[in-house]
Specification:
α8 crosses α10 and α8 runs parallel beside α15. This protein has 395 residues and is of the alpha/beta class. The radius of gyration is 27 Å and the shape is flat. It contains 15 helices and 15 strands. Helix content is 38%, strand content 13%.
């Protein structure tokens, strides 16, 4: 069964075993690829590639080997050309159409997308039916639909639930966004903050034993040390809803990594929207009936906690700068006042940002800049998280 394809994969650095190759042969015999070339590609990638980091190498080898086989792209180049040269003004917002679009499930939109691609014969823009731009259609780019599939173009409002033809896996460099395992590895740095507790020295000290035995000309001298226990306490505050919905998967991975981590003596997780203001919520739905006042957290959670914010730090300036109408006694008087109090209480604090600075100057940049002046603002990447852990360890 085209054994030279196996040798090509191995030649490209993919460690494909004979067991995996035989599993592919068995899967093909059972028609698990459903007699389609695309199904065969996904079956090969599923059975022969062990790591996401190897997806690109596999893709290149696959396309080189099967270069003479017609490979159907999800989106035709002709359609992409139409979408990249719209030359059309923005259409009118249709609230009724927006409600109809929101009523569609992801499966409904996927099925409609397949139909439109097969039917469309020319460029369309500012509409609500075809794949186009600047309109209310659930397919295309630069449109106004609250939900849909982005086809071509660049992300703007980030309302699309997927990008057609997007290559999700590229070179897994250190500055790429994280998966759960990478997050857990980066969080291990906080182990260094574990302290020696005031208990009798009853834990075997390997290094000291070797050193003292060597110093005594080989006569064994067993040394013990005080046990080391984890003293790290973490307060994790996560932005939920709005623009953060675009990073739901990444934040979910962070939540899982932190929750499963055994590196903390205590872990408190709360949620907020844009800025903590006066309340911290116990769940990401921001249920008002399941929240605690910020003043309670400041009084009951000691300064020993390492404070980690997760959010894009982008909001309208009035949300952070304007004073609250009638603040209760002891509660923050504004969003910025709340952040100041948290910074003053928890001197070891960082802000992890999945987005980055605003790409344009204006009111959104004002909020971002004000927050970045209070807390070290670091990207939610491998390097960013490792740098954040170092800052939390600084005494």
């Amino acid at each position: 069964m085209f054994e030279d394809f196996l040798y090509l994969l191995r030649g490209r650095g993919l460690k494909v075993s004979l067991t995996e190759w035989m599993a592919l042969a068995e899967a093909l015999d059972k028609n698990l690829h459903e007699a389609s070339f695309t199904g065969f590609y996904h079956l090969c990638r599923c059975l022969l590639v062990k790591s996401e980091a190897d997806f690109d190498a596999f893709d290149r080898a696959f396309l080189d080997y099967f270069k003479d086989v017609p490979f159907q792209l999800e989106v035709s180049q002709e359609l992409l050309d139409w979408l990249e040269r719209p030359n059309a003004p923005m259409g009118a917002y249709d609230e009724q159409q927006a409600e109809l679009n929101e009523a569609l499930s992801a499966l409904d939109i996927e099925e409609l997308f397949q139909e439109r691609k097969n039917e469309q014969r020319e460029q369309h823009n500012c509409g609500n039916y075809w794949v186009g731009t600047h309109g209310m259609s659930v397919f295309g780019n630069m449109g106004m639909s609250p939900v849909g599939i982005r086809v071509g173009g660049e992300p703007t409002s980030r309302r699309a639930f997927r990008v057609a033809g997007e290559r999700r896996y590229r070179d897994f460099r250190q500055d790429n966004t994280l998966d759960t395992r990478q997050l857990q590895v980066a969080l291990r740095r906080l182990r260094q903050f574990s302290g020696l507790v005031d208990l009798p020295p009853d834990e075997f000290d390997v290094d000291a034993t070797i050193q003292d035995t060597a110093n005594s000309a080989g006569m064994l001298k067993v040394r013990c040390k005080k046990p080391r226990q984890n003293t790290v306490k973490v307060l994790l505050l996560m932005d939920s809803g709005g623009s953060m919905d675009h990073y739901a998967q990444l934040c979910s991975a962070l939540f899982q990594a932190v929750s499963k981590s055994g590196h903390f003596k205590d872990l408190k997780i709360y949620y907020f929207h844009n800025c903590p203001y006066t309340r911290l919520y116990n769940d990401p739905t921001l249920n008002p009936g399941n929240a605690v006042p910020v003043s309670w957290a400041l009084s009951n959670l000691s300064p020993e906690y390492k404070l980690i914010f997760v959010g894009d730090a982008q909001m309208s300036p009035h949300e952070i700068f304007d004073p609250f109408p009638a603040p209760r006694e002891g509660e923050p008087a504004s969003g910025l006042d709340c952040l100041h109090r948290l910074r003053d209480r928890y001197r070891h604090a960082v802000w992890l940002n999945p987005d980055g600075p605003p790409q344009w100057d204006g009111e959104w940049a004002e909020s971002y800049n004000a927050i970045s002046r209070l807390f070290p603002m670091l990207p939610l990447t491998v390097e960013g998280l490792e740098e954040g852990m170092k800052k939390l360890l600084n005494r």
